[in-house]
Automatic annotation (TrEMBL):
This is Membrane protein insertase YidC. Its main location: membrane. Keywords: Cell membrane, Chaperone, Membrane, Protein transport, Transmembrane, Transmembrane helix, Transport. Belongs to the OXA1/ALB3/YidC family. Type 1 subfamily. Residues 51-66 have a biased composition (Low complexity). Required for the insertion and/or proper folding and/or complex formation of integral membrane proteins into the membrane. Involved in integration of membrane proteins that insert both dependently and independently of the Sec translocase complex, as well as at least some lipoproteins. Aids folding of multispanning membrane proteins. Interacts with the Sec translocase complex via SecD. Specifically interacts with transmembrane segments of nascent integral membrane proteins during membrane integration. The gene is yidC. One of its GO terms (biological process) is protein insertion into membrane.
Length: 604
């Protein structure tokens, strides 16, 4: 018995260490010059020649004063700078910084000259030689053909004439969601053949503000090349090897069939998408001197003969990572693997179907909290056959208690004989002593998968339940500190010790549900086990209480369903749990301990 107690204690302590580690791991810059075009160095005549990123930058004041074209769509607002033809000013109309609908809209792209500049640039680079200034650069001032605002119904056209006789025309279109299409044409009105390579680039000055650095949340470069998903965090981009021909730390990947590359934040993304089915080079780069991250899509060299015209088109996604929208672009537009731009994690085979069902439920129910509760019922129904076998096995184990006690008396101190006889007893009675662990083994990956879904999917961001729970992706905002809003002062600031101690309503309900579930069975006879089991619900209450309220809601619902299932199954096998009796017994034991302690103290 001593060894069994020791093993149980070690197992529970290790479980608590794991949970504490999980809790702490996942708790609820200087302005630089503007990079120009991709930094390659020519090694053959077919390679594009490009300039160094720090040699063609416009002063920030000039960039801020450049004329602009407005962007106005159902989802986006912003503008395009005519200097460089940059898409560099973008707001998301449907998303606010806080729960307050009067708060600022989320800003996705920011012009050069403002903190944390973040923008997209498209263009051409010459192949083989830099002897002729034939291509527009990041400082080129384009002219607008016609007037108007960029909208889903009205594309805009920009034009620039090079000194060498090349006419560059850029048409920018946008759909009602978040997809831009940039079509670049070059007409050669001169008498000399020219070789040019189209490119797209997204530049980000410094690491983004509010970077969370969660182990289970990817923020940084995201892309796909020929079916392979690539995810590189900002800190890992900084550690890329120096590539001499790039003049920077870089990673280049060749795609022949499909792909895309860009930057992803927690809920937002900006991604370059070349024409699928055509080769391109995907580049992730870090310019250390300027502290600038770039992702680039470089297309093959094209030849434009005198009197001829060439054309290149690429898409750019800039917006919220909405599952339905991204799925539409993958399935209907043909962007291979685009749904994987959402960080589904290692358990993608669970997170993807779990979110699909949750999204479907929310579409029919209209409340994400109720949808989580409904999802919990579905998941519990799915594993009910296994749970049934587990609870039946637990009931059968209770039936074997008299026989097991008899075996212990006959075996005495011979532990080998006792183990052998117990295994034979289990075999004869067709009882699996490990069956009680199976539901928990299944529950753990489901719990982590749902944690991932609630953490990464934008559909949970600012999703209300009822009452004070207006954001299921955030911890319960209520607190004992002000008696859940009854007292005239606020709650402790999130992340502080006070906030950890003074928990909210949902964490308390979580602890109570775990405590109630324990009362299905009598307390263990061993005092050490009694103490550990008595403390466990309240320890988990404080640890899980500061997770996303949607996850705590799931855990409470799961506990209550488990309680009901176990109660009914054990009752059907003649072992009705004496819940109230077990509760009374636990209080009686505490009274006896308190009386004994008082007596001992008085005796001293």
């Amino acid at each position: 018995m001593e060894n069994q107690n020791k093993n149980l204690l070690i197992a529970i302590v290790l479980s608590l260490v794991v949970m504490l580690g999980w809790f702490w791991l996942f708790p609820p810059e200087q302005q630089a010059n503007d990079p120009s075009v991709p930094d390659a160095v020519s090694t053959t005549e077919d390679e594009p020649m490009t300039q160094q990123a720090d040699t063609a930058a416009a002063p920030a004041s000039e960039a801020a004063q450049a004329p602009r074209i407005s962007i106005d769509t159902p989802e986006l607002a912003g503008s395009i700078s005519l200097q460089g033809g940059r898409i560099d000013d973008l707001l998301l109309k449907d998303y606010h910084v806080t729960l307050d609908d009067t708060s600022d809209n989320v800003r996705l792209l920011t012009p050069v000259g403002e903190p944390n500049a973040y923008y997209a640039l498209q263009g051409w680079v010459p192949a083989g030689s830099l002897d002729y200034p034939d291509v527009p650069g990041p400082d080129t001032m384009w002219t607008v053909q016609g007037t108007g605002t960029l909208s889903p119904d009205t594309p805009v056209t920009l034009q620039w004439q090079s000194p060498a006789g090349l006419t560059f025309t850029r048409t920018i279109a946008v759909d009602p969601q978040y997809m831009f299409t940039v079509t670049d044409r070059v007409e050669n009105t001169g008498d000399t053949e020219r070789r040019l390579a189209p490119y797209g680039m997204i530049a980000r000055h410094g690491t983004p503000p509010g970077l969370q650095n969660f182990f289970v949340l990817h923020e940084g470069v995201v892309g796909r090349t020929d079916g392979e998903l690539v995810e590189t965090k900002y800190k890992d981009v900084r550690d890329l090897p120096q590539v001499p021909r790039e003049g920077a730390q870089a990673e280049l990947r060749e795609a022949t069939e499909d792909g895309w590359i860009g930057f992803t934040d927690h809920y937002w993304m900006t991604t370059l998408i070349p024409q699928q089915g055509q080769p391109f080079t995907a580049v992730a780069k870090y310019l250390a001197q300027q502290d600038i991250f770039t992702t680039e899509a470089r297309m093959p060299v094209m030849t434009v003969a005198p009197g001829a015209t060439i054309e290149s088109s690429q898409r750019m996604f800039a917006g919220a990572k909405e599952w339905a929208t991204i799925r539409h672009y993958q399935n209907d537009v043909g962007i291979a693997g685009f749904i994987d731009s959402i960080d589904w994690g290692w358990f993608f085979f669970l997170t993807k179907p779990i979110f699909s069902v949750l999204h479907w439920l929310n579409a029919h129910i209209g409340n994400m909290g109720v949808s989580i509760i409904a999802l919990t019922f579905l998941l519990k129904a799915l594993v009910l056959p296994l749970a049934y076998k587990s609870y039946v096995s637990m009931a059968r184990m209770k039936e074997l208690q008299p026989e097991m006690e008899a075996l212990k008396e006959r075996a005495g101190d011979d532990r080998t004989k006792l183990q052998k006889d117990m295994m034979q007893l289990y075999k004869d009675k067709k009882v699996n002593p490990a069956a009680g662990c199976l539901p928990m083994l299944i529950q753990i990956p489901i719990f982590f998968s749902l944690y991932k879904v609630i953490l990464v999917t934008i559909e949970l961001r600012h999703a209300p339940f009822f009452g004070w729970l207006q954001d299921l992706s955030a911890p319960d905002p209520s607190s004992i500190y002000n008696l859940f809003g009854l007292l005239p002062w606020g709650t402790p600031e999130a992340g502080t010790t006070m906030a950890t101690i003074f928990i909210g309503v949902l964490p308390i309900l979580l602890g109570l549900s775990m405590w109630l579930q324990q009362k299905l069975n009598p307390a263990p006879a061993d005092p050490t086990q009694q103490m550990i089991f008595a403390w466990m619900p309240w320890v988990f209450m404080f640890m899980l209480g500061h997770f996303a309220s949607g996850l705590v809601l799931y855990w409470i619902t799961n506990n209550l369903i488990t309680f009901s299932q176990q109660y009914m199954i054990m009752t059907s096998h003649g072992h009705r749990p004496n819940v109230f009796g077990n509760i009374r017994s636990s209080f009686d034991r505490k009274k006896k301990k308190a009386a004994a302690a008082a007596k001992t103290k008085g005796g001293k």
